[in-house]
Amino acid sequence: MKILLRLAMRSAWNRRFTLGLMLVAIALSTTMLLGIERVRHEVRAGFSQSVSGTDLVVGARTSPIQLMLYAIFRIGGATNNIGWDSAQALARNPAVAWTIPISLGDSHRGFSVLATNGDYFTHFRYGSNQPLRLTQGHPMAGVFDAVLGADVAAKLHYHLGDIIILSHGMGGMGLTQHADKPFRVVGILARTGTPVDRTVHIGLDGMQAIHLDWEGGAPLPGVHIPAEFVKKFNLTPTSITAVLVGLKSRARVFALQREIASGQGYKEPLMAVLPGVALDQLWDVVGIGENALLVVSGMVVVVGLAGLVAAILASLGERRRELAILRSVGARPLDVLLLLCIEGLGVMLAGVASGLLLLSLLVWTLGPLLAEQFGIALQPAWPAAGELQLLLWTVLAGLVASLLPALRAYRLSLSDGLTPRI
């Protein structure tokens, strides 16, 4: 075996240019395979951690997925709101540590508007329990203050002090504008990679103020309350969309969920959803994208292995004399087969190791840019157990693939090798 190893190394060194190109191809395939795998895991983790640290999401009774889609991802519409009295009763529950009331329904140039209070910036968490962070300005303090998500500020080129006009409702063109009550941008949030980036945040009092002279989704005819007079009115909301709830003890989460579902202590029927469970159910619905990434990963491996087989097969024509000479000096056909297998396995191992090194280098250099631009937080790390298993299968597949040219070499005749066709 030592002789075969030495022969394989010297043979590889003599064909270092060709094998070098093959190694580069395998390294790039490995980098793409692991890169896609890490992005896939990160996207799934980011999806499931769009909200973290929140024990329950409470809203009007509907399906859990619809409540999560609307309250967390700003997709679709709420079937009904819940009364402010119910939100206050929930906040007074002895098991509850904090609540974040949220109210949705308006928009600004295609981005959702979320009305909330200061507890949003104190208690809301995403990812691995990360708090929201302002890159510029401060949270809302006045009635007509607005804090923008990172995508809103970047795509609409907004800066602190800019004036924005909200639209009544969400979606398409032709929405009625709240032009008489403009908001001023007082803060811009750091990128989170969650729906927060695509949200305009205002205060609950601001949401109430712009609807003082509205009724039934339209301005009241002949009634107009100027922005400077809104503070003369009671700006406490009468209803909100949902409440994010944090508990003093997570052991109480199922008990409180049952209590809310029973309606005990509340004036209206409510529903409490565990965010993690609902997000997993939601991912199962939208997981077709994950399957697509898996298919892409598999295709990358197949293309890399096909390149390996093609390169070794192409080199066999050049090596027929070399292999025939080995046979003439006593090498058995099995030795020729093992020599080709060792060569293929060595190239695969070197290519996989180079691919891992290249991926770590790319993550180290481009990771901050990906996090800043796309919210995908890739960190340099040792391969996870799943990635190691994937690499093992890749190397084994490469070994099996190298058997094809090895078997062809095994069948080469001695006379054919010594008198090659021209």
UniProtKB/TrEMBL annotation:
**Main localization of the protein?**
membrane
* Annotated localization: Cell membrane
Tell me which Pfam families the record gives.
Answer: FtsX, MacB_PCD
* Topology versus the membrane: Multi-pass membrane protein
* Chain segments annotated as transmembrane: 292-316, 337-370, 390-410
The ABC3 transporter permease C-terminal domain extends over: 295-413
Determine if rRNA-binding is one of this entry's keywords.
no
Recorded protein name is ABC-type antimicrobial peptide transport system, permease component protein
Recorded source organism is Herbaspirillum seropedicae (strain SmR1)
